[in-house]
User: What shape does this take?
Amino acid sequence: MVTFNIQYGRHIDRAIAVLESSAALRNADIITLQEMDAPGTRRIAEALGMSYVYYPATVPRNTGKDFGNAILSRWAIVADQKIVLPHLARFEHTERIATAATILVNGVPLRVYSVHLGTPLEIGPSSRRDQVRAILADAALYPRVVVSGDMNSRGIGKEFRAAGFLWPTEHNPRTHLVFNWDHVFLKGFAHTDGAGVVSDTLGASDHRPVWTLVSVPVD
Assistant: This one.
């Protein structure tokens, strides 16, 4: 599985090229995307032959178009939901969301969340923890869970670990500027088979895509 924050959804063709050309990304079965709009999400999903769900969070003043999170899947998406996260941004008063989907993987339900938490300029650490707890409250209803996306924090992973999640991306190299902010967290999995970062984005974004290799448990 892969998570990729595509800066303001601007360079869709470049993002598609990265997802298709990188050996670590091209066979992804689940992809979570952030900073997307509906047309950009559809273009990527169609190019990769994947199903998708997308929800907008806000409309930034500097772009004038939707800004939200998407989930792409090679398996059937049987349910989806927009989860509005607490705490508006300090200055713009914009909100953050998690896009959630239930995916059937060989008949096994998997709950997936595409997440983009508030930035350090928008909210403080305690507010970011509140946003995570809103996601964890929904995730508590499901035995197998993937939470992935731009956390705008590395330390926030401790909240997921305390809730029983694996954190395969904890020791990845930087994903944005000098920060390791893009992560994957897993519940209901015995182990993971590796994780990493693709360094060359072909100019698609200021974030690097992150991959994690796992096997979905069978009942």
Notes: The chain is about 20% helix and 30% strand.
